[in-house]
Amino acid sequence: MKHSTKVGIIGAGPAGLTLALLLQKRGIDCIILENRSRLYVESRVRAGLLEQNTVDLIRELGASERLDKEGLEHHGVYLSFNGVRQRVPFKELTGGRCITIYGQQEVVKDLIQANLDRGIEILFEAHAKHIEGTKTDNPSIFYQHNGEEHELTCDFVAGCDGYHGIGRQHLPKDTYNEFRIEYPFSWLGILANVAPSSDELIYAYHERGFALHSLRSETVSRLYIQVENDDTVDNWPDEKVWEELSIRLGTEGWSLQSGPIFEKSITPMRSFMIDNMQHGRLFLAGDAAHIVPPTGGKGLNLAVADIRFLASALTNWYDNQDDSLLQSYSQDCLRRIWRAQDFSNFMTYLFHKQAPHGSFENLLQKSKFDYIRISKAQATTIAENYVGLKEI
Ligand code: RFL
Ligand code: PHB
Fold it and tell me: Which one in 106, 168, 238, 255 has a CA-CA gap of 20 to 30 Å to 156?
């Protein structure tokens, strides 16, 4: 079948779903093609930390009913170094900005529902295979759905198809530089049916490795520990996970509550980006163009920040036949992407074990940590990057 729309969106993750809602609001037709089933994308466990800007956008899109009820606002974060814990308060350091804890799969559920309520077509289990004509006025996405081949002709293609998608493969190699760090450690993440042991997140360096205490609700905790890249979940029976978390997160007068673990998985840590996100009528957004290690909680938030620029640029083109924002799209996004890359890398090196305890590198880590306590400037730097800069 051959059909057409104005903007063909590949991927129903946070980037693709927010783009569709913003375009629909501005009267621009679009269709989303998503490789996976609805059930799969709605249950994929990932992020949990939403910046103020992200929450504001979901509100603006009228999709925040559940987020407003169930999201947990946090006004500070605990940072710990070998059992010494300090708090970085957001309110006084950032002029009242905060973060909200709400699972990515809940965000995705809410955004899918909002798309369907507004009559936006999402084709699940539609596998985009290649894109043609990115340098013409009518590019096409060729995809497979229900065992049949289809062609979607559009004015623009938005590659919101994540790190493993096909969008990036359609940028000519000589149009961008690629930057990449593969870190020599991974995260084992768990979800457990137990009330969080802390009112705010705890990021901890320990001589045995990094640990993070996060949460999803008043009854579900989300925790992570640094493991080797070749480690497997089979090496981590529940008792060992709790024991290790308890040691790494521990501080005097505090104890970690354990409970039944219902999700366990290992994620590699990587920094990746390209310095051009567009070619002709093809525009990339989100993980398709950049990956940050999750230590700063930035990935989903960056994806949504790209989309704000892309939606404005497309609106300006349709309303005013003005392509200036389309031309500057990559440069506009890259300012925030570089900032997030730096912050995520900084947090990763600050909290992960990379060098033997007591080595020069390790003592520099400790010095950076101690500096947060004695310098309001350093604490502010962390706070304003962590909650996310409003404009950049
Ligand atoms: P997604 O979510 O990967 O969505 C892309 C979608 O495209 C589909 N797709 C295709 N569809 C059709 N045809 C094809 N050929 C296709 N190829 C792919 C995929 O099925 C998928 O549905 O990318 P998007 O929208 O750019 O969103 C990015 C975020 O998902 C990601 O950055 C975050 O999850 C990262 N992240 C975090 N981000 C935060 O902002 N705060 C956090 O606290 C946070 N914690 C995390 C994280 C990621 C983690 N993992 C598992 C990588 C914690 C972890 C452990
Ligand atoms: C999460 O809750 O999953 C989470 C929170 C903060 C991070 C990463 C992940 O930095």
Answer: 106
